[in-house]
Amino acid sequence: MKKKLLSLLFLVAPFFIFSQEKGLDEKINDAFMPIASWWEGFVLTTVPLGSYNVPFVVLLLVGGATFFTIYFRFPSITKFGTAIRTVRGKYVDIEKHGVDKLYNNDETLGVEDIKDTIRDESAHGEVSHFQALATAVSGTVGLGNIAGVAVAIGLGGPGATFWMIICGLLGMSTKFVECTLGVKYRDVGPDGTVYGGPMYYLSKGLKERGFTTFGKILGVLFAVLCVGASFGGGNAFQSNQAAVQISSLLKLNSGSDGVIIGICLAILVGIVIIGGIKRIAKITEKIVPFMAGIYILASLVIIIANFSDIGLAFTIIFEGAFTPMAGLGGLVGVLIVGFQRAAFSNEAGAGSAAIAHSAVRTKYPASEGVVALLEPFIDTVVICTMTALVIVFFNIDGTNVQSVFNYSAETSSVILNADGRSIGGVDLTSMAFDSVIPHFSYILTIAIVLFAFSTMISWSYYGLQAWKFLFGKTKTADIVYKLLFLVFVVIGAGATLDAVIKFSDAMILALVFPNMIGLFFLYPKVKQEMNRYLNAISIKKEAIEEGAIDVTKHM
């Protein structure tokens, strides 16, 4: 049955390509739009909260993140230092060998051996902490940080930025939980290849709790949604935006430019993803610091150039969060916009990043959990805040906070006070940078292409893991998925399938439902793993202080 399904999908793929060549993208878009609109409406189903209708998925994300933050005693603050030290490799010896072998100490702490899981018997894994973090960050840092912030400000004003930051801080706890579980319940093949992610901790973890059938259903549901999200939001949308930026920069007008750019992107992506997670990690650990460095450096240049307005900018953001201007939907409306855009930006609660983090080399699942909490901090708290400041500086026209922005909630855009034009998304961010750094739009285009490229290769890994969970861990399944993924790179670049993109983005948020259900069942296991890892660190510190062993020889 699996082979038949794979063959059918492979045979259907060329139809999509020929459809684009025949110029049928608009017909496909029109036919698919009702389905996409229904799916988006279903995923974003609202519940009444006072006089507001709040998407249930947002309540689930924020409620779960708040609970985990309190239960684990604010890990975004208390475990931040541990996360930095872990990424830097300070505890690589105990993670590789185990504190019991290094220091002859029994450190089980009641964590039982689970059948058919790898737990601690050996330091399985394929990548380092930094490589896993870079791969996961490359999947979240992208257009959400550049265009998404502008959309949030267009919809909810500068105050939405404040709630994005709060959601990012809360999301750090959710990442900690899901990525710890990702490592704990991962599978390792005979050749050392790691298979992990929510589909595994949903099926295995819930089976352990006595909910075998329920766990299988949630695992399969997550995998199906993840494959769909990888083809759409994690691929077609990214290649489409990259192609648009390249065409705009080079002033290309040919109808086949998108397809040509898509083929070039597909070749580059194919070279990387055929090599598996190890090659993906090697690429992302170089691209992510580079592209984030360029973007952060440019943002700092603008922030320093507007140093005298920093106080005013933060005042605008803070006051807008609690006393929003007329017409923005009130406090709850601004809060919802901020939380929803942050959820799209860092994907905390969606579980996708746990797939990348599962491949780390360690005997202690919680070691990667603490590393993972850095991801929303980098993505939302740092980069999104910098983008927001740049946009606020661009629109400041004096010291009157109430006159800084005009908004168009219908188009998610800002109406410029100077000439009345309405702009939003990447264009607004690009103009904000160009106002201080002339022609920075060219550099921004390069950054957008790199963001899109790194997001595609990361999501190819996420989708492949989900695909193999559904169709088996065979070479055939591997090849079929990668070929289909590359086909959608070309389709995305050469099409204007707005409905597909809309459908795919909603599918990414849909991952929250099965994933968060699993987290609520399994978070006590995370507590056990956290205690076990902290205990191992304490034992190492004591040994160093006592001079009992030269730990450097175990590195």
Query: Strand fraction band?
Result: under 5%
Based on the coordinates given, report the CATH architecture. Answer: Up-down Bundle
Poorly predicted residue ranges: 8-24, 107-122, 398-403, 408-413
The amount of helix comes to over 70%
Provide a short characterization of the protein structure:
The chain is built from 24 helices and 7 strands.
Features:
555 residues, three-stranded antiparallel β-sheet, mainly alpha, Sodium/glucose cotransporter, 24 helices, globular
Describe the protein's architecture and organization.
GO terms for molecular function: amino acid:sodium symporter activity. It is a multi-pass membrane protein. Keywords: Cell membrane, Membrane, Symport, Transmembrane, Transmembrane helix, Transport. It is found in: Cell membrane. It comes from Polaribacter gangjinensis. The chain is mainly α. It has one domain (2-554): Sodium/glucose cotransporter (Up-down Bundle), CATH 1.20.1730. Helices cover 73% and strands 4% of the residues. It is built from 24 helices and seven strands. The strands form three sheets. A three-stranded antiparallel beta sheet has the order 5-6-7. A hairpin with a 4-residue loop joins β5 (406-408) and β6 (413-415). α8 packs across α19 (374-395), α9 crosses α19 (374-395) and α10 packs across α24 (512-546). It starts with a helix and ends in a 9-residue tail after the last helix. Mean pLDDT is 75; it is low at 8-24, 107-122, 398-403 and 408-413.
